[in-house]
Amino acid sequence: MNRYKLRTGISRALLLVFACVMGAFFALPLLWLLTAPFSTQANLSVTFPEQPSLANFEAVFANKFAIRALFQNNLIIGGGVMILVASIATLASYGLSRARVPGRNVLVYILILFSSVVSGTAAMVPLFLLIFNLGLIDTYQGVILVMTGGLLPSAIFIMRDFVDSIPRSYEEAALVAGASSYRMFRDVAFPLVRPGVMVVAIWAFVNAWGAFLIPSVLLRSPEHMPASIAFYSFYTEAGTPNITLVSAYAFLYTIPVLLLYLIVNWRFGFRFFGGIKS
Amino acid sequence: MERKAIFSAKVGLLFLAPALVFVAIFLLYPFVRVFMLSFTNQTLLGTTAPNPDWVGLDNYQRLFDFDRWMRLGEFGSALKITAQFVAGSALIGQVGLGLLIAWAFYRKKGVLRETVYTLVILAWIIPETVVAFTWVAFLDWEFGTLNAILGTLGLGRPDWLFKHPLESIILFNSWRGAAFSMLLFSSALETIPPSYIETAEVAGANAWQKFRDIFFPLLRGHILTDLILITLWTFNVFTPYLLTGGGPIKKTELVSIYTYRTAFQGQHEFGKGGAIAVVMMLINFSLAIVYLSMIRRRKA
Lengths: 278, 300
Fold this sequence. Notes:
The structure holds 2 protein chains of 2 kinds. By secondary structure, chain A is mainly α. In chain A, 73% of the residues lie in helices and 0% in strands. Chain A has a single domain (55-267), classed as MetI-like (MetI-like fold, Orthogonal Bundle). Chain A has 11 helices and no strands. The two termini of chain A are 33 Å apart. The mean pLDDT of chain A is 85. By secondary structure, chain B is mainly α. Chain B has a single domain, classed as MetI-like fold, CATH 1.10.3720. The longest helix of chain B has 30 residues, at 75-104. Classes of the chains: A mainly alpha, B mainly alpha.
């Protein structure tokens, strides 16, 4: 019995050490984001300001270009991607779940692989030309459409987890009562998968919110740029960033993501959504 | 597992139609288009913009010009850097670290687990431009937190981004993406029946034996799935550009950054960019096929 106690004691101590090392590794690079925005003389070090100040935020709010990027362009792009991805993925995963689609598991898996291969920089050249030919260069629509296409396979993958888990008996009853497949979806299935729609919507929004490459390739004029690119308005003409303003802007830019994380964690528990059943 | 269908395949297709349209236009079409593009000399501006010429394999020959292709800033060098980056940050960093964290907190609850999980997830979800700035600060030679700690411990103060740029982006990318693997593996671990572990514990198995004989065989499929996705994502990731810009002197120029520089900077050589994209996609597909055949062998 003593040996058993010793062993659990050691493993508990090991776990504590491991948790501290991991916690430090993942927390330390982010600390700067908590101190620099509140210091008027911030540099690249993590120093807790003696007199915390909101002056940096005042200066950021005076930058009309950066504020429009954050509160207008980012919301339009994020909102557009969110609505398209959530609605199309919900319809698609419902169709996949309720109709006899041969080899649907393989189909979704191949789609995910395919979107992983044909995404990122490799696809940016043909996508640029496609958007160019559609006349959508330097428009929100172009950015929203390209992002939606890239996110859909993973969104369908996440959504399937929710659609497959709702009971089918209501729909079968509705079927007997003669409901059309559209009404069955709208009135019976949709209310039940709403949590899934919310998770996918938030996931899509956060992805679009942080994107850098796609908008930087597809947008031209400054007034359309999202926040990820508007950082450059805090650079001097020589190309060096104004650290205090950059940190304050980064702080503002991060807050919505943190709030959405808290919402998902509180409502559903932040976990892996994608068909691993316990 | 086969359940009765609620409606016909035709109606199912109707529900799938919008998604299929998007996949066709924004995934399939670029895939086909990039092949055609790679045989032309199309650029963004100039006479070759509206009327590109068919140049055959010219672009490929320029990529595989073996006299110079291992020089920094050339294609071979970018491929080599990418291979090191994927091996270090995808295989060891993200998959290894994710597995380690999920395994360490298996069947554990409480503040310790919640704190570590939250921090790992935050590193994953905060916008990429923001984490690039915080990492530039973290790694800074003079003021950075990392060197402050190393200096206090008497371990020296290396100039990370200039003397060890590749190590820096490997460390960064491991930090950035470990969350996905961690979440996947903790869900997968929960599917293991507790009785297996209890039996092994009664028989006196130690942690390593439990991992080798119970967890690993049962998780193999999930580990392979995770490896495929993480490898492909890491191969295509562009975020290190925000940290180093591909430098110093192109020492961190990954293939994704090389493509960006070729196609969207300077001469805007779309044709050559297309050829790079084709080679990249072929490599990605071969990697996917290797992993998939490993999964199939497991099932056979």
